[in-house]
Design brief:
CATH superfamily of the largest domain: Pseudouridine synthase
Number of strands: 12
Number of helices: 4
Order of helices and strands: EEHEHEEEEEEEHEEH
Largest sheet: 9 strands, mixed
Radius of gyration: 18 Å
CATH topology of the largest domain: Pseudouridine synthase
Shape: globular
Helix content: 10-25%
Number of domains: 2
Amino acid sequence: MQIIYEDCDILAINKSAGVVVHHDKAHPPGGGGTLIDEILEKYPEIKKVGDLMRPGIVHRLDKDTSGAILIAKNQKTFDFLKTQFQERKIEKKYKALVVGNVKNESGTINLPIGRSTKYPSKRVSGKRLKGKTREALTKWRVLGRFKGFTFLEVSPKTGRTHQIRSHLSAIGYPVVCDSLYAGKKFVCPFGLARQFLHASTLELALPTGLNIKLEADLPEDLQKVLQKLSEADINGKS
């Protein structure tokens, strides 16, 4: 458990890929195997904060998404941070490698998201969705280009489940190694074993009023892929 920031109210962690964040039906309280179980072992007082299944957790990351995640240490901070997220005052930025050569240097995806009727765990994006949908807005900009791939910084302005993965897939550039959303464009370069998506930055105001920027370093498996792609491009041009 890599701590990137801590004070008397907040704990911020750089979550590893493959780690489930909170308790659910498959990971009940006391069963172990989640990030919150690791946290409660060191900070047992957090057990009484927020929801029983998600003590202290004010937002979430998918199991195979790495990066920065916030945990409230007390109820007052939990309520404060929840409000900040609901009012979209917390700036979130992700790093994503996508399949394909994105044409523009930056852009905005404004497509509603709804639950797939065929696959309940999947969220789909588009203008012709049927059933219950929720607005979703994602901004992105290009950080780097490789042969067949584009490296993006992505900023979700809403907080829908699988928003980044669903939105990028909807515009034809799915996240690399995303088995749920990539479809026929599924590819895992250089042995990558999970989706290339990392929560890199959180910018927020603390309960004290101080504004901070929290950054989670890109993990080694994702750095390796970028390095190999860069080397392949150089060798291909030589």
